[in-house]
Specification:
Helix content is 31%, strand content 36%. By secondary structure, it is of the alpha/beta class. The radius of gyration is 22 Å and the shape is globular.
Amino acid sequence: MIKKTTVFICVMLFLSTLLFGLDDYRTRIAILSMSNETGDAQYDAVCSTVTDTVALVLRFLEDYLVSTGDDDPDLERYTAFDDDALKIISEESEYDEILFGNAVTTDSGGFRFTLSIYHSSKQAVIIEEEVIAETLLGIFDAADEITLALISHLSDIHIGFGSIELIQESGKGFYQVYLDSKKVRNPKKLFKTVLNGSYVLAIHQERMKGDTVVFEEPVEVFEDQTTEVRFSIPGAAEEDWNYLEE
């Protein structure tokens, strides 16, 4: 009996190891914060939005193990993305690919965005996308365009984007938005470019008993369309009052 039990445990451990290690075979990609080299701090928000959008879309594709500065603080040490720095990042953290980019002003007064992928084993940039916005109004369109172009290189499926518009009908208080359990740091900007598909959108709020889901709904995002999501934040629930009474 003991022998059979031991064999069974060994088999289960072997299977669990295989299952646990499946994700390890995915490409590990580090996403560095897009560098604002325009000399004007007001464009930090644009660069941050591009960085967050790329990271969010790649996570939804599920083909990569994605790390940003939030996941790996060491990535925030690097502001100059030369070959030496990229090589150090790939060797120290064993990333397969590193995504980086910058925004600069052009001689004509426009803005040029560049996004690139550094391949660690080749020690070279294998993909580079560049787009120019001639006016201030064109900056966010250019940011969406370069994001779409880069991600299209990284996936063999059709990439299309729609958008989500959140409409709060009632309720008060700070809340956090999640899409398929992934925190969306700035939904007003990031929801302008959402990979088409099916999701579950949830609104979380800190309440008496901690992080609480106060709204949850399935959402369909269609290419070149805006999906409206209307929600209300409820007042204190009965369990909150019971908690206070206790």
